[in-house]
Amino acid sequence: MTNVIDRFVTFLFYRKSLALFLLLSPLLIWLGVVYLGSLFTLLIQSFFSVDSFSGVIKREFTLESYYDLFRQSTNWDIIIRTTTMAFTVTVVSAIIAFPIAYYMAMNAGPKLKPILYLGVMLPLWSSYLVKVYSWKLIMAKEGILTWCLDQLGLLHLLDVVLSIPVIGGSSLSFSYIGMFLVFVYIWLPYMILPIQASLERIPKTLLEASSDLGGGPAQTFRKVILPLAFPGVVAGSIFTFSLTLGDYIIPTIIGNSSYFIGMAVYTHQGTAGNIPLAAAFSVVPIVIMMVYLTIAKRLGAFDAL
Amino acid sequence: MRSKWNLGSIGLKTATIFGFLFIHIPILIIIMYAFSTDEKTFQFPLPGFTTKWFGVAWERNDIWEAIILSSQVALISTFIAILLGTLASLAVYRSQFFGKEIISFLVILPIALPGIVTGISLRSAMSLFGIPFSTWTIVIAHATFCIVTVYNNVLARLRRSSHSMVEASMDLGANPWQTFRFVILPNIATALLAGGMLSFALSFDEVIVTTFTAGQQSTVPIWMLTEFIRPRQRPVTNVVAVFVILVTTIPILVAYYLTKEDDGRKK
Fold it and tell me: Mapping DSSP to helix (H, G, I), strand (E, B) and coil, where does residue A108 land?
């Protein structure tokens, strides 16, 4: 048996292209057929339509689903709501993440650095659903956050915040503010790590050069550090933006049950059984992401990934 | 040099501490709630502590079924991911060919695009071809996005290990299979294990793609999601949450230590 393997591997070793073909084909078949194939089917199905009487999918080329999608103003609301949320989450995550990443990259000593790194990485990988759920507990009316604010005598502040129209609500876990908090919480590590990586890559000699040339800390930060770290921020923003755009668990569990793109897709394919409309709807985040990635590429984010 | 930056450094330290508290406290809170005697609400401070919910969870068949299904799916998907990811990384390492960059892009795509896109794509394809939902449809979906962790880990290790060992082995008369078996494989073993562990954790926790590709069966995350929306016994959900934290965190710690020694400077 070993002899057969020996001969086979030796045989391949001298036929590089055949070896390459055999090594790559399983992956290419899997991703090509299963994944790209499915993406392609989705795209095709978005050009089908559903017969309004029988509910059967008509397999003929039509733009009906796209027409349906853009005709209704509620769908526009969903798209705008989701994109606005994704954008706000991205900006705020970047603002919170930057000092943390800066501290990790520039100030932390060699002993502290791996601990901090692990401290960011662990929550990034640990259970998404559990993290969302923990906020459900935290923000519940009788929960820990209310209690803390009460102890601090700040409960009226919460009421003020919750009484803000549109973003407020009956309690934090039923408002956009709550949803926003959870989004920021969940995606924050995805923002910290690329920024930290891009800060790590800045040669320390550049900072010294800047200070030798008379640049103060603020000036060095603005003219040297920030421009060099910016690709990292954009790289992080790809994650926070894309993940918020496609998420439907958080808006299902937290918030006032107004629709986000993900929920709309889920409902259209599930309860409504309208796969063409669901497919057309999911083309929206793909297109938004493609535009976003094109801009990100121009800003040099891919070199920072 | 350093003293110049000290002014901002106090603010930085505070921001970092608060950031880390923000990231970690919610996870600790979940663990705490698993021991609460309170059955109906999320009342704080907790009225009392008990371990009885662990016992109650242990007795529940639906939880065991979900755990068994999740483990099966994660193990099979990880196996497929290891197979496909390792073969491809061996091909990409040290050979030049047309479309090499496309491979890396293709492997990342299933996790780079929103989960909802991957989910609905697979579902629409499965329904178009009349494939019935089963454990295998979940496995197909999970393996697709698990490949990237193995591929990236193994490729990174291959790039860092020196090629002279392979040359030495061949010079000393080992045939290509022996070289692979006794030189390359031991070299990438921990990276394989690390990639496999991450892949297992990734699969065990996945919910969005799973909701689209599972039929009536529940994996652990699907079970949890159902409980969030229609709670039956809240404390039991908290116990399962603690279990999930352990199952996803331990492989990540192990993977971290397995890949740490060879890259002091994390990318």
Answer: coil
